[in-house]
Amino acid sequence: MNTLVVVVFVLAAGLVAMGCVRADRVRRWRESFNPSAPDISDPAFVGARVVLFGMAGIGVFSAFQLMAVSADAEWSDDELSSAVGQATSELDGTSGLGDVFGDDSGFDQEAAKMIEEEVVENGGGGAPQSGVDAGATASNKPSDADYTVQAAGADAAFCVHVVRTRSKDGDYEPPGVAGGAGSVTVPMYDFAVTSREGAC
Hints:
Layout: H1 2-19, H2 23-33, H3 42-73, H4 77-91, E1 95-97, H5 107-121, E2 132-136, E3 144-151, E4 158-166, E5 188-197
Antiparallel strand pairs: 1-5, 2-3, 3-4, 4-5
Helix pairs in contact: 1-3, 4-5
């Protein structure tokens, strides 16, 4: 996208330069290549300049539109920093249900998804609604995990640290088919979430 913007600006500058060439110089060039060609009137030169400057103006406007689209599609370092900070504040101290099967097989995917969604939600009006990745560290455990948060377009990275502890409020027992107590107990957890600048 940035390359296209540069090309459009260069073309617009070329059109302006062409429009600024004096009429007598154009006549001399034309005469040197084709002496028998009919002379070009002054009104024709004025019309050509209007067309060239108009095309250059359209090009500049289009380039700025492309820049705006590019900015809306990518995260800036400031946007990501603010979003990670707010997401950390909102996730810290929250509670969540554990794995029904008790093996914590998908804890990394669930925590990463939770962080990504919260960062996007706190990105603000100018930030994209996608492009955030929370990469899990290989040494992660269900009770203590790190995630490197990055976003498309941003150079910055942030390390989000998640500590999961069993909730003091006890486990959750979903009702059984007959309306009584169920046979499966789902653990409840509390999350302590912190973040710092830099990859984990």
